[in-house]
Design brief:
CATH class of the largest domain: Mainly Alpha
Shape: globular
Low-confidence stretches: 114-142
Structural class: alpha+beta
Number of helices: 10
Number of strands: 7
Helix content: 40-55%
Order of helices and strands: HHHEEHHHHEHHEHEEE
Largest sheet: 3 strands, antiparallel
């Protein structure tokens, strides 16, 4: 029998997926909310979560299986009747979704369109040549997918021989002069969502240069100046 997370487990996973801080995305066992107890063990046993010891604390991490489930599961039911966890998860999702739709040139209204394949209007529109705007959006999607491998290779080159895996976004962007900012941003967000990188804000204002501010990636309304390559 195929395992499917129950509503409380689904909320727990989505809160981690949409988390806007490292503490939410990879919480320690002591700070993980909502409390799951036995339900958390089943998520680990079923391969949706794994654990990592950091100092004295044990942290939870999403696995590829969890990301795959989230990407396929359209029938979402969350237990949000108690506490702020549902609100946090929804806010985190919307703060990523809206900028992403803007970057991809997709109107929010398209998510709620009643048009479907098989209607008369749909057949008529299907026969029309795609507009320049639609073609450009499709190209961005293809380029975004292709950019991921190139960005990862650039990250590996930038940290070669260094003890730290921290990379300034301005240094990374300089390696892709032929790509638009939107294309690079979309690829970085894809990598971040897949758990391949972590994006952080440099809170030490003395270290943040004008170039860092210019090349920062806005996530949840806050600038991210550096990334860490995972794996």
């Amino acid at each position: 029998m195929t395992f499917a997370p129950n509503p409380k487990q689904a909320l727990f996973l989505w809160k981690m997926i949409t988390g806007e801080t490292p503490e939410i995305r990879e919480p320690s066992l002591a700070n993980a909310r909502p409390e799951l107890k036995k339900d958390r063990k089943s998520l680990i046993d079923q391969g949706f979560l794994d654990t990592e010891k950091r100092g004295r604390a044990i942290h939870l991490r999403l696995t590829d299986k969890a990301w795959g489930w989230a990407g396929r599961c359209a029938d979402i039911e969350l237990m949000i009747s108690r506490g702020p966890d549902g609100t946090i998860a929804l806010q985190g999702l919307l703060r990523r979704l809206i900028p992403y739709l803007q970057q991809q040139g997709i109107p929010l209204a398209d998510l709620y369109s009643d048009r479907s394949a098989g209607t008369g209007d749909s057949h008529k529109s299907a026969e029309v040549e795609p507009s320049t705007e639609v073609t450009a959006v499709a190209k961005i999607r293809v380029d975004t997918h292709a950019l991921v491998d190139r960005i990862r290779a650039a990250c590996v080159a930038l940290i070669a021989g260094r003890p730290s895996k921290e990379i300034r976004l301005t240094s990374l962007r300089s390696r892709f002069p032929e790509s638009s900012r939107n294309e690079v941003d979309a690829a970085l967000i894809r990598m971040h969502d897949a758990g391949q990188i972590a994006l952080y804000r440099n809170d030490n204002s003395a270290e943040v240069t004008a170039e860092d501010e210019r090349d920062a990636l806005m996530v949840g309304g806050a600038p991210r100046h550096v990334l860490y390559l995972k794996g």
